[in-house]
Amino acid sequence: MKKSVLLGAFTVAGLAAGMAAAGTKDDVQARGKLNCGVTTGLVGFAAPDANGEWEGFDVAVCRGVAAAVLGDPKAVEFVPTTGKTRFTALASGEIDMLARNTTWTFSRDVDLKFEFTGVNYYDGQGFMVPKELGVSSAKELDGATVCIQTGTTTELNLADFFRTNNISYEPVPIETNAEAQQQYLAGACDVYTTDASGLAATRASFEDPSAHVLLPEIISKEPLGPLVRHGDNEWGDIVRWTLNALITAEELGVTSANIGEVASSTNNPEIKRLLGSEGTLGEMLGLDAEWAKRAIMAGGNYGEIFAKNIGEDTPIGLARGLNAQWTNGGLLYSPPFR
Amino acid sequence: MSSITDPGKQQFRLSMLIYDTRYRSGTIQVIAMIGFMLLAAWLISNTAQNLAALGKPIDFGFFSEPASYDINQRLLDYTSRDSHLRAALVGLLNTLVVAVLGCITATILGVIIGVLRLSHNWLIARLMTIYVEMFRNVPVLLWIVFIMAILIETLPAPRAFKGVETGALVLTNRGFYIPEALFSRSLGDIHLLGESSLRFDVSLDFIAIIVVLVASLYASHVIKTRADRIQAATGDRPTTWYLRLGVVVVPMVLLLVALGFHLGMPELKGFNFKGGTHLRNSLIALWLALSLYTAAFIAEIVRAGIMAISHGQTEAAAALGLRPNRIMSLVVLPQALRVIIPPLISNYLNLTKNSSLAIAVGYMDITGTLGGITMNQTGRELECILLLMLVYLTISLSISAVMNWYNESVKLKER
């Protein structure tokens, strides 16, 4: 009798521990900081600047969420994760969300029990080689040594690509982008492969970027986006709609510069709902009315974030391409704020 | 008149469990045991509950799924279509390779350095002291990364060898290429365990070589015993060295010729060298760093072992007219081994466990395959880590068992 009571108590304790993980929003607000998993350093996407402040395309998503939930875009604790450690960090609750150019795949969504809250960058896997090798196509890479970040989808795509094309290669698994860069530049591998955006960002940080070429083949679809744990839909909604708010803001022409003016002068009901002067969208999310306004003011709308961190005027120089708004022929298409 | 009566059989009362010293310690142990088991049960049930709440109950089914990733250094045939189990096996072999290579090299280096540290030559003794202090006071991870960086940054890339006549040994920043043994009239392989994940090939050439080697060593041993017997009987030892050498060398040469033995030289073809055996830079960095690091500890153990033998023994041996190196090998080392072996075991274990730092240089050991990519791609953290712990536990216990058996055999025999 006594034993069963004791066991019962333990069972309840176990259940409570399981349940405690559900209230991520409350945890974040109680803590006053958002724990956001990012890369260990990929210029343009997430890297500390000269003052040690994290900045980049993925970092901006974290800051947007922090602004929406906590009212302060700086209230973020950035947790650098590698391709290998990121999922464990998220699943264990060490981080509240992961914004680390992570590819949305079926098995990660379903089997690994994560919830992808959208796509902030449509990417594909590419190859970078030194120009002096004279390679013009990935199919000429028979027998090459390929540097690859371990624990990524690129590792699997690479195996599939070389197998289906019936050519051989020697994989050199590497933990972080920085190590890959070191090995690649020293010639310990002929090819570096990762998402094309990552290659562009890495190449931009080289001493002589023009000595390296990106091969034309893009061998995979890599929709990159922020993700959260399964089972906390309220928190998932907050991250999803913060990202959508940034995308919608660009579509509607709301920027961090004109947001104050637009908020007071607009007659567009969707902008009004987005900025909280009409409707109760914020309340439905469990936040206040101005959540989206703060998210947009944190780093600008999607277009501003893109242009500032990885756009054509930056050293990384990525074109919008697939990441243009649907109205401009791209794939960015936020569901309506209604 | 008085008769002695047995003391009345004392009635057992529950309070005696606490107040009677005969039972007290047992009671405390039982309670502690129950507490411990409850704690363990709680941990397990909590884990199971939380996993169930997460929708991820323990399941090892992923092992039969295709791994879908490639591994560069494989001692078994393996493609990305093989199962996760086979990938783990390839990783396990890689772990064992670096552990065995490391233990052998560390022992050789450690013994040499330990003995030299006791040398009367001031310079050599001091240099060895510097070596020991330098290597054992810096974390081994740093040595691994450091050696890897040296290999990558200082050696030329394979394409630097374009148009250069390369010899048998090529040092590149992707690793070392050495000649490989090839047999033009090979006996072929036997394939064991069919198509399962545990299948492996055994080279008949290799078996033939081993059989011939063992047989000729045995023949050599027979010759030696015969010589010993003649010496014991007559006092004259017959000259046998040419017989013993011949009985080992001739059959081996004949076998190698019959198998068409030749060396395959590495040649630059396309991006990389083809042919020859490729010792990858990750293996070399890991092997070297682990050996150098552990050798520093072994050197200290060897030195301690030698110093534990009283100086009187050395002097006594010298008085008998033994030369210093014979004193070392016949008198000091056999006794020192008794002191050396137990701490040596724990250094072998350390080296094996430290080999899990392999991922720092991208060496695909079992931590890199089962505990790295497989864990990452399947999301089965708990299963993978538990298995990984079990694997390391098994390896460590096996090393302990073998070394303890050896220790028994060199231990002082007490009669």
What does this entry look like structurally?
The complex is a heterodimer of chains A (338) and B (415). With 338 residues, chain A is an alpha/beta fold. Chain A has helices spanning 2-20, 24-31, 57-70, 86-91, 106-110, 153-164, 177-186, 196-204, 233-251, 259-265, 269-275, 281-285, 291-299, 302-309, and strands at residues 34-38, 47-48, 54-55, 76-80, 97-98, 114-116, 121-123, 125-130, 144-149, 169-174, 191-195, 212-214, 222-224, 227-229. Chain A folds into two domains: 24-122 and 224-328, 3-Layer(aba) Sandwich (D-Maltodextrin-Binding Protein, domain 2), CATH 3.40.190; 125-220, D-Maltodextrin-Binding Protein, domain 2, CATH 3.40.190.10. In chain A, helix 3 packs antiparallel against helix 13. Mean pLDDT of chain A is 88; it is low at 1-21. With 415 residues, chain B is mainly alpha-helical. Chain B has twelve helices and nine strands. Chain B has helices at 16-19, 21-54, 84-117, 122-136, 140-154, 204-234, 241-259, 281-307, 311-319, 324-354, 366-378, 381-410, and strands spanning 170-172, 175-178, 180-183, 189-192, 200-203, 261-264, 267-269, 272-274, 277-280. In chain B, strand 4 (189-192) and strand 5 (200-203) form a beta hairpin. The radius of gyration of chain B is 30 Å and the shape is globular. Chain B starts with 15 loop residues before the first helix and ends in a 5-residue tail after the last helix. The model of chain B has no long low-confidence stretch (mean pLDDT 89). Chains A and B meet through helix 1, helix 4, helix 6, strand 10 and helix 7 of A and helix 2, helix 5 and helix 11 of B.
